[in-house]
Amino acid sequence: MEGKDILILSFSHSGNNDALAHRVAEELGARHERILPRRKSMPALMLDLLLGRVPRVTPLPEIAEEYGFLILCSPVWMGKPLSPLRVYLEYLKKHPLPYCFLSINGMGEGNAKVEADLTAWAGKPPVLCINAAIKDFMVPDITPDTKKMMDYRLTEDDVASLTGKVLDLLHTVV
What SUPFAM superfamilies is this protein classified in (predicted)? Predict the structure, then answer.
């Protein structure tokens, strides 16, 4: 599959997932669009996640109609993909578009649970689910805690390293 057949949609509160999505898109020659929820505050996003609400977002999910493969990139909070992705996952229930999920988040744990949630919301599993950990990029002598991980911003070297790993895995399914 050529890069022009791939759409990458990303949501990022800190910018880490957007940086990863942007670099992967550049390397693949794919289109990258940022997901913009109407309500952008952390409390609103947390409430959407806890209540299972599907927020209004742009771009609309129909943007995916002209592509053959979809890559969703978003952090995972409390073991769940963030609610701005739900509108796209629900779109996938009605459209036979293969997709994968990329995430850079605090501990990078809970891949099976994340994959189960994605499968439930999309009606089919992702062909690939990559859940990388911010703690793996932090200086080894710093004990990671929630605040430090939330404050951490990937460096260009971090993004390049992670992009290489993602591309190696993507080439096995795309």
Answer: Flavoproteins
